[in-house]
Amino acid sequence: MKIGVLSLHGGVIEHLNHIRNLGADAVEVKEENDLNELNGIILPGGESTTMGLLLRERGILNPLKQRILNGLPVWGTCAGMILLAKEIENDFRNHLQVMNIKVRRNAYGSQLDSFVCSYRIEKVTNEEIPLIFIRAPYIVETGREVDVIFEIDGKIVAARERNMLATSFHPELSSSLEFHRYFLNMCKEYF
User: Fold this and answer.
1) How confident is the model over 25-51, as pLDDT tens digits?
2) Other beta carbons less than 10 A from residue 71's beta carbon
3) Is 187 assigned a catalytic role?
């Protein structure tokens, strides 16, 4: 199985390491040709505006969007969630617009408001895992086909729509491989 990690900006190496630790092939995606032969792609955390700009400058935005719409499994963490969203509540910019969610950027506040908590997410694992939030967004609205995976205090922080997964938090920054394992299993459903 070959999993790409968008490698234009943000937390790339941690995702690559987690995927490799689970025995899959992990590759960096920096240009359109890197999208070939992927079984899934991860859009990492970082700064969504910068990532959107780089996707456009490198000519990857539309080819990536088409691959996702054609069934390529994708997982957006934090800024990656924003890239996937059809609507961003507090920003006029939109990016891939493929997942039927409305997201609030920096919903938990500034860098100083970052936090870590632990929960058991039944749809992902039976064990408690750390959830790391850094200037995190959350989902404020979902379409009918979106499956809410997890909420904290009534705020949606993980969701899935068909081949698309989005999390507000950063599983790659913890030692837990559970969310990456969940994504790999999701990729197997499509290939």
Assistant:
1) 999 999 999 999 999 999 999 889 899
2) 12
3) no
